[in-house]
Design brief:
The protein contains 11 helices and 11 strands. By secondary structure, the protein is of the alpha/beta class.
Amino acid sequence: MRLNRFIKSFNAVKTGYSYFSGRITGHSITSGMPVTAGIEISNHCNLRCPECHHGSGMITRPAGFMKIELFKKIIQEFRPYLYNINLYFQGEPMLHPGFFEFLEASHGIKVTVSTNGHFLDENSAEKIARSGLKIIIISLDGMDRETYSLYRKGGEFDKVINGIRNVSRAIRLTGSPLKLEIQFLVNRHNEKQIPSVRRFSKEVNARLKLKSIQIINDENIDYWLPNIEKYSRYRRSNGNYIIRNRFDNHCWRLYLNPVVTWDGKVVPCCFDKNADHIMGDLNESSFREIWHGNMYIDFRNSVLTNRESIGICRVCTSGLHGVRY
């Protein structure tokens, strides 16, 4: 156990050194492995959220489910180094028919799952509470049916509320260390409901995260943009809205937090929704080979040289100050 902690800690130091070295010198040096990662077990979804790449139809890559064999291979390589994995990216992870197999295969690593909350009946909630999952994030973007349904197209408000209550109850009855978090995507239509969602979160013993909304369709920005400034990623400039970011030429995500798509493709971060920047394929290479490979080195150097020139970086929140994201 002590050896495992030492390996993780020593790796974290090397990874931190890589990030700060690149930031200072402007040249990519990669020592160590990432300390956290996102793994997309499915990009299927049951909702059609209008400012989501999946819900708006902007996802061009195919939909599918990760094979458990591939996941186990990934975890075997990651296990000595990772403090946490996020079992989500695009889509709804609980749609995977083998969802609980992935939780079991992740044993020994802190796991976070983000869900839209439509698959949390009493039985599933108890299984989740007993699974060893560290954090479950449940999206709740309105405190009544009408407001919720404006964004969560195809969603059922009552089912999500009941699902949150089921998880809260299961945590209490089983004595589970699972942490429950409610994510509230603040927009123009629900911002007045923040006091209400605060009360509800307290009632179910959940942490509340008030998050700014990413708006991907420019014609909808006035419809969704909140009036409360700290929840807005955007500012008006010359009649247009632009993200409030200085785009400094560095990014910690490229050293600490890669993402793996359901079919094994490694992409730089969670802003590469369409996997436009594939660094390698875990069906063909080890993660270490990809992480230290030329494509990753070149991409990191591009960010260190001119981050603003990269499409996925122009919508990134890294370096965004004074905004809840």
